[in-house]
Amino acid sequence: MIVLKFGGTSVGTAESLANVKKIVENLEDEAVVVVSALGGLTDRLIATARMAADGNEEYRSEWDAMVKRHHDIIEAVVGDAARRAMTLEAVNPILDELRRLYDGVNLIADLPAKTLAQIVSTGERMSSVIVAAMLGGASHVNSLEVVKTEKWFDKNIAATEVTTRLLREALSAPGLTFPVVMGGFISSDVSTGEITNLGRGGSDYTAALVAAAMDADVLQIWTDVDGFLTSDPRIVKNARVIERMSFVESMDLCTFGAKVIYPPTIYPVFHKNIPIRILNTLHPEAPGTFISDSQGKGANGVAGLSVLRNEALVTLRGRMASNPADLSTRSFNALARKGLSVHLVAGTAGINAFSFALAAADIPSAVRLLKEEFAPELVDGQIEVIEVIENLATLAAVGDNIKKMPTIPGLILNILANEGIEVLAYSDKASETSLSYVIAEKDATPALKLLHRALFEMQ
Ligand code: ADP
Ligand code: ASP
Ligand code: MG
User: Positive or negative CA dihedral for 421, 426, 428, 431?
Assistant: First the structure.
């Protein structure tokens, strides 16, 4: 079995959907096709919900446009008249539900989180029905019934055991015809049944959960670029396709901001050793990127560069900071208990400062948790101050062999210093496979371009 995931741009227009049809029809294996909402729709669904809640009556014409877009797509891609009528019968009630939800939030002038989740779910609910109809002879499995989440602090995370069981039951049901089409991203709470989702970009994760549950041969992620590139192509024009990379490299690059795969996606397939292929729906003959358990090569040991924006740096200063091991264990445990994670750690024995980077959005909770954890030390002066600097970015160079290239850390620091880019903290220890640097947000784009040129464009 193979699992294919088509992102928003792959299902955004009649033309790209025609490519999806060709790709799926050419398959010989049993396939599960996971689709995102029509390109850009999730953003529009959210923006329109906010409009409605804010009393902006234009939400009505936005809804009209969504109706037209879905009707036009159905008209264009579902050839058979009877099947087209059935598709409209399935999609129209979802559009009506969406309208009632918008009218509801407009009436109460509020947008509760669970209502927003129901609103955004309509995107994948509709696109999956449309793609199943387009493929003719395909079955549709309702992701809301088989992909389950549970609460983890204020987040919804996949309830993997029950999801695996439900996916296996649904996808091995007698009489099920392949290909099977499912909506990505959408899910429901394991205990309340309320509609939830796996987070923005989460269709990749749905596909990985399916691939792992079914022991698929490969997970194909079809998107709008030729593969996993050495850097974000929207920033670095000369970014090039990485032909082969390891699971760990892809995991590091995605955790540090490469948007091409939603980070939690990699773990379930890595665990089952199911390779991932990144492919371009608009250019299906391109070889793409093959991600597996074999070690990546990379130029100079570096597979790629990525950047996380909206970061902040927390520094604990004081005598106690000269013992970074103890400080890090206590800090990270305190943060992890509330579901906060840290992106980079910089601390050197003997220096009275210990720093780590994390998402700026997590700063208010992080500072509160650290003040609680270190209350005694803040009183007796072992920790003098907890400092926060915002408007930062964390830049990462990733490669399986990066630690075997002793000149790389110095080279990167030199390149940045020569351009006057200040590195506020860096870490060559946190992971075996990445080097990371905290710089000002405004320096992120020039730094990425400079490093890319030096590491990938100069040979
Ligand atoms: P989809 O809708 O198919 O899920 P996304 O927009 O989520 O597509 O992800 C694909 C996009 O990720 C590309 O269009 C590209 O602009 C961006 N991207 C960022 N970093 C990288 C990278 N290192 N390699 C490839 N694409 C990247
Ligand atoms: N449609 C969702 C989003 O835009 C999920 C996805 O595309 O992966 O975030
Ligand atoms: Mg995506």
Answer: negative
Q: Alpha carbon of 32 to those of 125, 219, 272, 417: distances in Å?
A: 16, 10, 17, 49
pLDDT in tens, 373-423: 999 999 999 999 999 999 999 999 999 988 888 889 899 999 999 999 999
Q: How far apart, in whole angstroms, are the C-alpha atoms of residue 373 and residue 261? A: 35
DSSP for 76-116 reads HH--SHHHHHHHHHHHHHHHHHHHHHHHHHHHHT---HHHH
- Token pair, residue 459, equals 């040979």
Give the E-state strand segments of 142-217 in sequence order.
148-152, 155-158, 180-183, 186-189, 195-197
Cα(348)–Cα(342) distance, integer angstroms? 17
Please name which of 35, 41, 46 lies closest in space to residue 11, comparing C-alpha atoms. 35
Which two tokens mark 456? 């990938």
Q: Which atom of ligand 2 is nearest to the CA of 7?
A: 7
- Report pLDDT digits (tens) over 185-243: 999 999 999 999 999 999 999 999 999 999 999 999 999 999 999 999 999 999 999 99
For strands 289-292 and 218-223, give the pairing.
Answer: unpaired
Structure tokens at 121: 């779910």
Q: Is the CB of 258 under 6 A from ligand 1?
A: yes
Q: What is the atom index within ligand 2 of the atom nearest the CA of 262?
A: 8
Q: Is the CB of 203 under 6 A from ligand 2?
A: yes
Q: Which ligand is nearest to the CA of 185?
A: 2
Q: Residue 324 contacts by C-beta under 8 Å, 6 or more apart in sequence?
A: 345, 347, 348, 349, 354
Q: Is 182 in the pocket of ligand 2 (CB under 6 A)?
A: no
Rg (CA), the chain: 24
Helices 81-108 and 59-77: crossing angle, nearest 10°?
170
Neighbours of 413 (CB within 10 A): 16
Distance from the alpha carbon of residue 185 to the mean position of ligand 3, in angstroms: 10
**Phi, psi angles (nearest 5°) of residue 6:** -110, 120
Tokens standing for 54? 């804010």
Distant-in-sequence, close-in-space partners of 247: CB < 8 Å, separation ≥ 6:
266, 269, 270, 276, 291, 292, 293
State if pTM tops 0.85: yes
